[in-house]
Amino acid sequence: MPIFIKTLKINWRRFYSLQKQFYRIYIIHSIWFHSFYIDNIINSMGNIKSLNGKKKSKEDKKDKQNDIENGNIPEPLTEEQKQLLQDAWISLKNDMAKIGVVTFIRLFETHPEVQDAFLPFQQLTKSDLEQSVILRSHALRVMGTVDKCLSRAHKPEKLQELMLELGSRHSTYNAKADFFEMVGQQFLHAIQPHLGDRWTPEMEQAWTQLFKLITTYMRNGMLSAGR
C-alpha cells in the first residue's frame, strides 16, 4: 500500500510536469500564430494603402492633366525654357534691385490703382519712388521670389508649393490677383534692355510661361485662403 501511494504520487508529479510543458508549448504557438496573423493583416493593410496611394497619385496626375487641358494650369516649363531662364538669370541677378525698382515704377505708371493699393507709395512721385528705400526693399523681395522659383524650376511641385503659400499670404495684404499678372508684364519690359541680343522670341516665351505659372499658383493660393 505505501509503495502504490508512492508510485501514484510520482505519476501525478509527471502529469503536472507534462501539463505545464503542454501549456508552455500552447502559449508559444498561440503567440507565434497571433503574431503571424497580425503581421499578415498589417502587410495587407500596407498593400492596400500602397495601392490606394498609387491610385490617388494616378488620379492627381489625371486631375492635373485635365486642369492643363482646360486652361486652369499653364503648361509646365520645357527643359529648353528652364535652361534659357537660368542662363539669363545669371547675368540679371547682378542688377536685381535696379530691375525690381524699374518693374514697380513702370507698374505704377501704367496702373496707378496698384500704387494706391500700397500705402507707403501713395502720392509719391516717380523721383520719390526712385529714391524710396521701402520700394527698393520690396522690389528685392519680389526679385528674391523669382530667384527661388528658378531654383525650383526642375522641381515643379516645390515651385507650386512656394507660390501657393505666397498667394495665401497675399490674401491678407488686400492685394488683387490681377496685380500678379501686371508685375510679370512689367518685369519682362524691365529685363529686356539688360539681355540685349539675347532677348529672342524663345526667351520672351520662357519668361512669359514662368510668370503664367507664378500668377496661376498665387491666384489659387489666394482663393484657397479666402474659402
The total of beta strands comes to: 0
Q: How would you classify the helix and strand content by structural class?
A: mainly alpha
Rg over C-alpha atoms, rounded to the nearest angstrom: 34 Å
CATH fourth-tier homologous superfamily of the largest domain: Globins
Elements, N to C (H/E)? HHHHHHHHH
The CATH architecture name of the largest domain reads Orthogonal Bundle
| CATH topology value of the largest domain | Globin-like
- Largest sheet features: none
Shape descriptor: globular
Compute the average pLDDT.
78
- Approximately what portion of the residues adopt beta-strand conformation? under 5%
- In the CATH scheme, the class of the largest domain would be Mainly Alpha
How much helicity do the residues have?
over 70%
Distance between the termini: 94 Å
Number of domains: 2
Q: Uncertain runs with pLDDT below 50, 5 residues or more? A: 3-8, 26-57, 59-71
Secondary-structure topology with pairs:
Layout: H1 2-69, H2 79-92, H3 96-110, H4 112-117, H5 126-131, H6 133-151, H7 156-170, H8 177-195, H9 201-225
Helix pairs in contact: 2-9, 3-6, 3-8, 7-9, 8-9
Molecular structure report:
By secondary structure, the protein is mostly helical. It has two domains: 1-72; 79-225, Globins (Globin-like), CATH 1.10.490. It is 82% helix and 0% strand. The protein has helices spanning 2-69, 79-92, 96-110, 112-117, 126-131, 133-151, 156-170, 177-195, 201-225. Helix 2 packs across helix 9 (201-225), helix 7 (156-170) packs across helix 9 (201-225) and helix 8 runs antiparallel to helix 9 (201-225). The relative contact order is 0.10. Residues 3-8, 26-57 and 59-71 have low confidence and may be disordered.
